[in-house]
Specification:
Length: 357
């Protein structure tokens, strides 16, 4: 797996040059031509089988409201599409809908969103709908993972060969089967983590933006209202679009930092702990091990602010069990407790008493 990802990175480096990180924003004076590629999530399939608004529709609406939308095409996003089918459409220059064909549309695009790979894996799972037992062939799952890696790599290269200047945003996936028994959730979440790592590495190597959505969906199971279906509600698609928009919105502050609670006038001693000065109200610190969302809360829901990067450290002022368990990092901002993504430490009780008498 590691060797294959390394190979992908080398391919991109040789063909594209050392890719710099994708720009999060666009010039608000320029018009946007937006193309959505992908499977049923891009197409907008509902939890009950019909086609409605997918996340691309909400993104396009944001561009329109900003007064910059010049064109929007999502006819190349199809329910059931695998990563190979997305790639084949580009290679074969298919025409779907009233447009000039996929290659001509991609050539005009300023912004392209892409999601593919989940169907490749879901087809390897056998689910008994009576007992809800999950079985699979591990060799076939690994083969499917390798196929996703190759197909997504080739898809991004094909897009860049047609249009080297378009901004590309590649979406990760969520656990589509949270309603299955708890004994199968580790399997599903581990497979999801591998798939998302593949997608993230391809985005990183190609200079594209990676959009993580797994935490947002996991925090609100209501986004998956039909236990017999893997698709999001309209509210779920809107939440996904909001995550894309944090990378696309030109008016978004570049990096809003959590504000620390204001200290009272009462003088407290200066107490050092692990290279930082403890603040009044602080109970510990949170170190970011992997990219993870920073959240605010409003009306009983979470709203993503930005992605915190590995290596960043934040003071922690509280913890509660809401939304799966979250640390308060001050200023109304929260970070979800997720093993492997964050590392929480707390000072001794004696030190805490000095700053929190």
């Amino acid at each position: 797996m590691i060797k294959f990802v390394t190979k992908i990175c080398l391919i991109f480096a040789l063909i594209l040059g050392l890719a710099s990180p994708a720009s999060a924003f666009w010039d608000s004076n320029k018009k946007v031509y937006y193309i959505a590629l992908g499977d049923s999530l891009a197409a907008g399939q509902t939890p009950f089988g019909s086609i409605g608004k997918g996340y691309p529709d909400f993104i396009a609406a944001e561009f329109k409201e900003a007064g910059v939308l010049d064109g929007f095409v999502k006819s190349y996003a199809k329910s059931g599409y695998t990563s190979k089918q997305v790639l084949d459409d580009i290679r074969n220059n298919v025409t779907i809908g009233q447009n000039a064909g996929i290659q001509a549309e991609l050539k005009k695009a300023t912004h392209i969103t892409l999601n593919a790979g989940a169907n490749d894996l879901l087809r390897q799972l056998q689910i008994d709908r009576t007992t809800e037992a999950v079985t699979f062939d591990e060799a076939e799952v690994q083969k499917a993972m390798a196929g996703v890696q190759q197909n997504l790599t080739d898809t991004v290269l094909a897009i860049k060969a047609i249009n080297p200047t378009a901004e590309i945003y590649i979406m990760g996936y969520y656990n589509p089967l949270p309603h299955l028994p708890a004994q199968y959730q580790p399997l599903l979440n581990n497979s999801l983590a591998v798939l998302n790592t593949i997608i993230e590495k391809i985005a990183e190597a190609s200079g594209s933006s990676y959009i993580s959505i797994s935490q947002t969906i996991a925090a609100n199971i209501g986004y998956l209202p039909n236990p017999q279906d893997v698709h999001l509600s309209e509210e779920g698609y809107k939440a996904v679009a909001d995550l894309f928009w944090t990378f696309m919105n030109p008016e978004m502050p570049e990096k809003p930092a959590p504000e620390e609670p204001k200290e009272e006038d009462k003088e407290i001693p200066v107490v050092y702990w692990e290279g930082m000065v403890l603040k009044k109200g602080q109970i510990g610190k949170l170190m970011i091990d992997k990219p993870i969302n920073l959240w605010t809360r409003a009306d009983g829901k979470l709203k993503a602010v930005r992605v915190l990067n590995a290596g960043e450290t934040y003071r922690v002022y509280g913890y509660d069990g809401n939304f799966g368990g979250q640390y308060s990092v001050g200023g109304g901002y929260y970070v979800t407790k997720m093993d492997g993504y964050v590392n929480y430490k707390t000072p001794s009780k004696e030190k805490l008493k000095l700053v929190n008498p």
